[in-house]
Amino acid sequence: MSVDLDQTPRSLLVCDQSSFLDEKNRVSSQVEQLHFNYKVSVLLPECSSTPSHLDSVLNSFSSFYLIRKLPIYELLDKHFLETSVYQGSVYGLSYRTRIDEDNCVALTPDGRLFLSLDKDSFQVLGVEGKPSRFNHRTNSRFVVSIDLTDSSMAPGGRSYQRLLTGLRSRLHLKTDFLLSHHPGGGASLQPLLSRYDWSEHRPEVSSHTLTHLSSPDLQSCDPHSFLEWLGAVDANISCENLSSSFLSSLVCPEPKTTLSRSLRVTICGMLLPQDVHRLIQEIRCYLEQPRLESWVSMTVHGFVDSPISWGVHEHGVLRGGENFYSLLLFHDHTYRLHLATGAHDTCPP
Amino acid sequence: MRRDDKKEESAVFQRVVLKNASPYHYMKVCLVLGDESTRLSAVELKHFIITGLKSLHGEVGAALPFDLLKYDEDTLTALLRVHSRGLVKLWSSLTLLGSYQSQACAFRVLQVSPFLLALTGNSRELQLDEGSASSSSG
To answer: Which domain of life does this protein belong to (chain A) (predicted)?
Structure first.
């Protein structure tokens, strides 16, 4: 029997095309549904320095906290639930845990706690859960999803006690944890932070000027070629190759133009969808003024090891765990949105 | 008729879902050598990978087209591009490459994706060191 070597695991690319003026455009909901964003990269063609408005938005991205060795049962602390979770908009994600080998935890702004556990931990915890969708042959990973705002999970209740005892006495799940709060920052998180070793971090902004950049014709370029070109720009890969070159035959898709001076701005950290949304609005304002080039591209990468992506759908890593979207905005308020996922993921919204 | 409506048309919501349509796959790999002082140029690295393809998949394998998009000589880290059909062949030959000029070596595959863009935003690279922390308490 021969094995088919040509097959590759599933990947999905969703291409949306619409206008911000269309009432039915869903960009804001799509942006909000990717809860845990790791990196945003903006490409401004024919621009030599970051426009001040854009710069101030980038520098006002919410800061986030890293708590070292946080016992997960602390997230069930009554005071924390009342001051932060019930009010909405707490984002939490375990840090430096890999979803293909470790236990991962996520807390979404709507007050839901997601635990992605290996089989042993799941059985020790003793709380209801489901086998992961991405188990292969044997059930080796389980997902526990708990709505902390549900009345059955009120502090003191039976389900609450069961989960608390499971996390505190049986599983002893401890992990470095990233935490962010919107709006208002850390005031309501202080009591929790003060009990552990913590640090505050600001998202890191960096910019890079690109000269003589070849750019494809955006109207005729197919989505995969466009994303490849954008990836080459972000990774500093030269597209100036000959088809006969030994090392690389990567070229900018034809027809192409040359942009004399472009700017790539990136911001890294744990970024909130609300901040990304503000950035989109600011880019739209930027595009309203007459420019040499009438487009801007923005790419948002999600966390690879988040237990959920695209809303609250289960997410996993098979080879890459990529979940990102790339928004191409034009001055006439039309946009093109490319949402991409790897094998262990659901279809983007 | 259609031309007159062009403005209207462009505002209409359109959604296309492409499944497994990526023509290429991209790999981020790192070469680990027994003797860490050894340096390879980009051309030498590509030639080395081709010899690996040849020893595992023969002459046909050696003819598999792939690109070395980027290479960092200091960290021996490279970005490769290969047609999706050739991914398994390239990956398997990288795995089985065990010696470079009679010293032990191994390729670490750091990331594989059908999107080059995904390789520029890997959250596993997020480093939150003490140095960048603005406040801390015990």
So the answer is: Eukaryota
Whether B7 is covered by a domain: the verdict is no
What does pTM read for this prediction?
Answer: 0.91
Positions in chain B short of pLDDT 70: 1-11, 130-138
Of B19, B22, B132, the CB nearest to A201: B132
**CA triplet B103, B108, B110: central angle to 5 degrees?**
160
Give the residue extent of every domain in chain A: 3-61+203-341, 64-201
- What distances in angstroms separate CA A188 from CA A65, A88, A112, A150, A169, one per listed residue? 12, 12, 18, 21, 27
Residues 26 to 45 of B: which have CB under 8 A from any A CB?
Answer: 26, 42-43
Q: CATH code at B81? A: 3.30.70.3250
Averaged pLDDT for residues A245-256: 89
At residue A39, does pLDDT exceed 90? yes
Residue to test with chain A: of B120, B124, B129, B130, most A Cβ within 10 A: B120
Domain range holding B60?
41-114
Whether A301 and A38 have beta carbons less than 8 Å apart is answered as yes
In a domain, B110, yes or no: yes
